[in-house]
Amino acid sequence: MKKHILPAIKLTVVMILFFTVLYPLVVWGIAQFAPNSGKGAIIEHNGNTYYANIGQSFSDDKYFWSRPSAVDYNAGGSGGSNKGASNEEYLAEVQARIDTFLVHNPEVKKSEIPVDLVTASGSGLDPNFSVQAAKVQVKRIAKVRGIEEVTLNQLIEKHTEKPLWGIFGPEKINVLKLNIALDELK
């Protein structure tokens, strides 16, 4: 047993140095070649700084509402609700979201509400929603802002991100970017 202790200690020291010094420095070095030096997709608007790749809370009627968050949009604690589709508490939470949406969007039928407007993503921080989630909110926003629905639909089309290489994933819209563009409409 004594002949194994010294190699084990040496290996432990080498691994500590590798995983606490060398590996983080390599990852940091690679990140320097990424956009914004690996600090994330930062957007500045009206004197505020936002991360475009982290979900933001929008619940005012003059904005496109975000996807709900299980972590209250706190990037320090990413995670889902971990409640199953048969959990009564979860079903009540989703029903409350549906009811709230219908109150603010009376012209929309319950069957027309996209699932991503009433359920949180696995991370709770999804910055995107579906094109349908944007289009179902157009009438409310047009009425509140006094903007023509055609203009809002053009804005949605302009901010729709196509699937990667045209095949991987659905079309999506970054809610923060869409709402900033909405504020910039004259």
TrEMBL record:
GO molecular function, one term: ATP binding
Alphabetical keyword list: ATP-binding, Cell membrane, Ion transport, Membrane, Nucleotide-binding, Potassium, Potassium transport, Transmembrane, Transmembrane helix, Transport
Compartmental location: Cell membrane
Gene Ontology terms: cellular component: plasma membrane
Chief location of this protein within or outside the cell: membrane
Transmembrane segments: 12-31
Recorded topology in the membrane: Single-pass membrane protein
Coiled coil: none
Subunit structure: The system is composed of three essential subunits: KdpA, KdpB and KdpC.
Alphabetical list of HAMAP family matching this protein: KdpC
Function: Part of the high-affinity ATP-driven potassium transport (or Kdp) system, which catalyzes the hydrolysis of ATP coupled with the electrogenic transport of potassium into the cytoplasm. This subunit acts as a catalytic chaperone that increases the ATP-binding affinity of the ATP-hydrolyzing subunit KdpB by the formation of a transient KdpB/KdpC/ATP ternary complex.
UniProt family annotation: Belongs to the KdpC family.
Protein name per the record: Potassium-transporting ATPase KdpC subunit
